[in-house]
Amino acid sequence: MKVFNFVTAAALAVSLAACSSVDGTGAGTAGGAGIGAGGAGGVNTSVDQGSIAYFTTTVGDRVFFATDSSSLDSSAQATLALQADWLATYPDRTLVIQGHADERGTREYNLALGARRAQAAFDFLVAQGVNPSRMSTVSFGKERPEELCSDASCWAANRRAVTVVAGGLTG
Amino acid sequence: MSIRNLFGALCALLVLALPGGLFAQTGEPLRATIGRGVFEPIPMAIPQFTARDAAAEQFSGQVAEVITANLTGTGLFRAISPDAFITPRPNFDVTPTFTDWTVINAQGLVTGATSIGADGRLTVAVQLWDTFNNTQIGDGVTFTTDQANWRRAAHKASDVIYTRLTGESAYFDSEIVFVAETGPKNARVKRIAIMDQDGANVRYLTDGSDLVLAPRFAPNGTAILYTSYRTGFPQVYLQDLVTGARQTLGNTEGMSFAPRFSPDGRRVVLSQTSGANTDIFTIDLATGARTRLTRSPAIDTAPSFSPDGSQIVFESDRGGSQQLYVMPANGGTARRISFGNGTYGTPVWSPRGDRIAFTASISGRFHVGVMNTDGSREQLLTASFLDEGPTWSPNGRVLMFFRETPGPLGAAALVSVDVTGQNLRYVPTPAGGSDPNWSPLRAN
Is the dihedral of CA B132, B138, B140, B141 positive or negative? Predict the structure, then answer.
C-alpha cells in the first residue's frame, strides 16, 4: 500500500516540477526564498514548498531497493535528483539518511546492508551537488520496519533509504 | 545394567543415529524425531525433600520441583508422577527402600533435605540413587546459601545429578542475557535483560528508551557487551554487572556493533562501519588499542572467537553472498567454510571447540544449524519463518536461539534445542525475547 502511495507521490512531484517550470521560473525560486513569500509566489495552493511535509510527501523522502541490494534503480535516482533539487533550494537544511532492511535477514548483516543503502543515497546526493557536510547516515537494519505484513509487498517497502530532514521524523 | 551404563548406551545410540536421515525433514520444528523406540527418557523419581525444621518446609517441595524441571527439560529424563509414589516423602537419613521405587519403574531416585541454619541460611542436601542396583551414585552433596538464592541451590544440585548420570559437564546454574521485547513490530521497545537459564529471576538492565541489540556475556560472567542507539546511531557498550558502570567501546564515529569477548576476556571483537563498508576490529580493553582484522570492501561482521582464542569465525558477503569464513585471530587469510544452498550468518564457536552454530536462510526459511569448523558435517536443527542467532550452553550440548513469527502481530521468543536437533522447547520470558546469550557456568 505504501509503495503505491509513494509511486503516486513521485509522479505528482514530477508533474508539479514540470508545472512550476512552466508557471514561471521567477515565481518558483521566489517561493522558495522565504517562508513568508510562499503565498506571494503566485502558486495557487497553500503548500509551503520548504516544509518538511512537502519534502516528505511531494518531493519524496525515500527510495527502495531490491533484495540484498544497495543499487539505485532509475526510480530511486529520479527521487534522489528531486531531493537534491530541493536541497539546493533550501541550502540551510541538514539531513540524516536512514538505511533499512526487510525482515528476511540476520540482524548484523541487515545493519551493514542498511548502511550500504544509506551510503548509496548519500553518494548520489553528493554527486548531485549536495554538500556532504550537510548529511550523515545511519542504519537501522531490520529494527524499524514501516510495513508490518510478512509478504513481498511489505518487504519491498521496508528495503529503503529515508532522507530525514532536520526537524523532521526521528528514528 | 546400572542406570549410568544404561544411559551411556543410550547416548551412544543417539550419537550413532545422528548423521543419517534424522534431519532430512524440513517442516515445522524438528521435535524429537529420534522417537521410533530408539530412545526413551530415563524415568526418575524426585519426591519432596525432608524438611529438618519448619522454616525449611517451603523449600522442601520447591527445590525438588526445580530439579525435576531441570532434568526433564533436557529431554533425557522423565519424572514419575508423585501420585504413583509408595513413599511420597522418603526419609533422607535412611537408605531408601529400593523396591518402593523399582516397582513403579523409577530407575533413578533423588532424595534431599532442606534446613535453615542459625544464621538464617538455607542448606540443601541431595543424594542420588540407582534403584535397580540398590546403590548410591556418588556421595551426597550439600549447598548453603541465602534463602533468596534457593533456586541456585536447586540448580547446583541439578548440575551434580546431570553430571553423574551423563558424564558431561552441566549447565543449570547459568544465566541468559537477552533482549526483552514489547510493543508493535514497527515501534518495538527493547531492553537488555538477564534471567536464570530456566527463565526465572528476570531483571532489566536498560529501560527501553534506547534501541538495544545483541548482549554478550564476558567469559567470567561479570560484564556484558551490547549495542545501543543511545547516541542516535549504533555503538558498542561495555557494562559491568557488579558496579553498573558503562563505557563506550571503539571510536565514536560511525556505527559499531556485533561485539563479543575474546576467551581470555582481554579483547573485544566487533564490526565497525565506515561509509558502505563494514569490517572487523579488535579492541584491547586494557589499552584501548584498536586493530583492524579485515579490509575487504564487503560486509564483514558477526565475529566469534574459537575457545582457544586462536581463530575467529565471521560472516561476509565478499564472495557475492553472505557466507561463513574462518581467519586467524589477528587477521590474515580467511577461508570460506559454508558451501550449502542459501546464505549463512551469526556463526558461534562451540565451547568444546569442534562445532560452529549458525543461522542459515534457505529458500525463504530460516534454520539454526551446526557444522564442523571446516564446514563439514553440516546439520540443520530447526526450521521456521525466522530462526536466528544461536548461543551455546556452557557444556555445548544445547543451543538457544530466537524464533520470530510472521505478520503484523509477529513476535520473537526464545527457544532451546539439543545440538542433536531434539527436544525443542520454548524458554519462558515475560514478553517477547530475542538475541539470547548463555553465560558460563556460574562460579560460586
Answer: negative
The CA distance from B45 to B412, in Å, is 35
The 3-state secondary structure of B14-75 reads HHHHCCCHHHCCCCCCCCCCCHHHHCCCEEEECCCCEECCHHHHHHHHHHHHHHHHHHHHCC
Q: How much is the pTM? A: 0.87
Question: What is the pLDDT of chain B when averaged over all its residues?
Answer: 91
In chain A, residues with a C-beta closer than 8 Å to the C-beta of B359 are: 106
Q: What is the largest CA-CA distance in chain B?
A: 72
Question: Chain B interface, mutation test: which of A68, A104, A109, most B Cβ atoms within 10 Å?
Answer: A109
CATH superfamily of this structure's domain B175-438: TolB, C-terminal domain (2.120.10.30)
Mean predicted confidence (pLDDT) in B363-390? 97
Distance CA A69, CA A78 (A): 18
Give which of B189, B192, B157 is closest to B173, Cα–Cα.
B157
Task: Spell out the residues 6+ positions from residue A2 whose beta carbon is closer than 8 angstroms to its own.
Answer: A146, A147, A157
CB B44 within 8 Å of CB B79: yes
Strand order in the sheet with B267-274: B255-261, B267-274, B277-284, B290-292
Nearest residue of chain A to residue B275 (CA atoms): A119
| pLDDT value of residue B251 | 65
What band does B357 get if pLDDT is binned at 50, 70 and 90?
very high
Cβ-count burial of B190 within 10 angstroms (0-12 exposed, 13-18 middle, 19+ buried)?
Answer: buried
The tens digit of pLDDT for each residue in B288-306 reads: 999 999 999 999 999 999 9
Residues B277/B254, Cβ–Cβ less than 8 Å: no
CB contact under 8 A, B345 and A150: no
Orientation of helix A107-127 relative to helix A74-89, angle to 10°: 60
Over residues A68-72, mean pLDDT: 98
Q: Which amino acid is at B79?
A: A
User: What ipTM was reported for this prediction?
Assistant: 0.90
**CB pair distance less than 8 Å for B213 and A120:** no
Contact state of A143 with B258 under an 8 Å Cβ cutoff: no
Domains of chain A: 47-167 (3.30.1330.60)
Residue A40: φ, ψ to 5°: -80, -10
Query: The domain B42-166 belongs to what CATH superfamily?
Result: TolB, N-terminal domain (3.40.50.10070)
Place of cell 529501560: B207
Enumerate the domain spans of chain B: 42-166, 175-438
**What's residue A47's pLDDT?**
79
8 A C-beta contact, residue B382 and residue B415: yes
Backbone angles phi, psi at B101, to 5 degrees: -100, -35
Q: Given an 8 Å threshold on Cβ–Cβ distance, is B345 in contact with A104?
A: no
Of A70, A104, A109, the CB nearest to B315: A109
| Radius of gyration for the alpha carbons in chain A, expressed in angstroms and rounded | 16
Q: List the single residue in B with minimal CA-CA distance to A146.
A: B186
> pLDDT > 70: what percent of chain A?
71
DSSP code, position B233: S
The Cα B354–Cα B328 span in angstroms is 16
